[in-house]
Design goal:
CATH superfamily: Metal-dependent hydrolases
Strand content: 5-15%
Number of strands: 8
Mean pLDDT: 96
Oligomer: single chain
Largest sheet: 8 strands, parallel
Distance between the termini: 5 Å
Structural class: alpha/beta
Strand order of the largest sheet: 1-2-3-4-5-6-7-8
CATH class: Alpha Beta
Length: 340
């Protein structure tokens, strides 16, 4: 078995993947045809061409257009199922998926019905492939702290399978600090805390997420690499970074894959995970993420396996499940290496 085949078969965890961002072009076309959504996207070629980005703001604009096409709660079940199908095909054992509920409530959909549809997709995937999945809700910083507090009330009343909250959206102009009360309330609700930061803003965004919000993980975190003091703070606090290498390349957060700071994070004692973010939109999946690190940054099989193990440690799974997964991962790894 060659090295790249071993990498494809490595057991993995995905901590950072958006459900809507996992909509396949073929599925989006079926949704458009079924729903009669008004859009200029009429063919697969239209959609594939649409999934090309000048920069991060342009990506957000494209993502918003996809949101506009999802005009019925039921579509969430199939999108979620297909997201997990793709991950299972990459030997991902557990997923922590991101649900931007208010993006769709603002468009007239029902929060509870969407959540039920997502969980139906999760249960179907578990029955089919054994993959497990929990949910974190992206409160979307663009809508403001008041909206975020309202969303926490939704979660308090109906939080089936939701384990964490996050603030995604546009970092520029929406710093973390105004969300301090929101994150305190989320912590009181026993929810884990994450924030997108350092993707489209400087290290100050990461500082705010860490010191003001008290996050356990940072989504992306690219610009944190420019601040040695911040790297020390992340290590000291045990804050993990959910890296999304191909996404960062596609949106212009980095110019080339060789510039990605993941090695710098690891060198500074920070635990990282590797993730696909919005896989069909970036023409990627989990195997490709691992392979890019191997091809472009020289990561060995052992180093990639360490990332998989660290992803278990920084996941939001219960301690017993973490230990079970760790034993399972190591057993699979020993089997792969013995055949290599």
């Amino acid at each position: 078995m060659d090295t790249e085949e071993i990498i494809r078969r490595l057991p993995k965890i995905e901590q950072h993947v958006h459900i809507v961002g996992s909509t396949k072009p073929e599925t989006l076309l079926r949704i458009i045809e079924d729903s009669g959504a008004e859009t200029k996207l009429k063919t697969l070629d239209d959609i594939k061409g649409f999934f090309r980005y000048r920069d991060f703001p342009h990506f957000i604009s494209v993502y918003s257009t996809v949101n506009d096409c999802i005009i019925d709660e039921k579509y969430y079940e199939q999108i979620t199922y297909e997201m997990l199908e793709s991950d299972a095909g990459c030997n991902v054992k557990h997923v922590e998926a991101i649900f931007s509920a208010n993006d769709h409530v603002r468009r007239g959909l029902d929060y509870g019905e969407m959540l039920d549809a997502i969980n139906r997709g999760i249960r179907r995937a578990k029955r089919k492939w054994g993959i497990t999945c929990t949910i974190r809700v992206d409160l979307v910083r663009n809508y403001g702290p008041g909206s975020a507090l309202t969303q926490l009330d939704w979660l308090r009343k109906k939080g089936d399978n939701i384990v964490a909250v996050d603030i995604g959206g546009s970092e520029d102009g929406f710093p973390p600090e105004p969300y301090e009360a929101v994150y305190k309330k989320a912590r009181d609700l026993d929810l884990h805390l994450v924030a997108h930061a350092g993707e489209a803003a400087g290290p100050e965004s990461v500082w705010g997420a860490v010191k003001t919000l008290g996050v356990e993980r940072i989504g992306h975190g690219v610009t944190a690499a420019s601040d040695p003091e911040l790297l020390r703070e992340l290590r000291t606090r045990g804050v993990g970074i959910e890296t999304c290498p191909v996404s960062n390349l596609r949106t212009g957060a980095i110019k080339t894959m060789k510039e990605h700071p993941i090695r710098n994070f690891i060198k500074n004692g920070i635990k990282v995970s590797v993730n696909s973010d919005d896989p069909p939109m970036f023409n990627t999946e989990m195997n490709n993420e691992y392979l890019q690190l191997h091809r472009e940054l020289g990561f060995s099989v052992d180093e990639l396996m360490r990332i998989s193990l660290d992803s278990i440690e920084t996941s939001f799974l219960p301690a017993k499940k973490k230990e079970e997964l760790r034993e399972k991962f190591l057993a699979e790894y020993r089997g792969l290496v013995s055949k290599g």
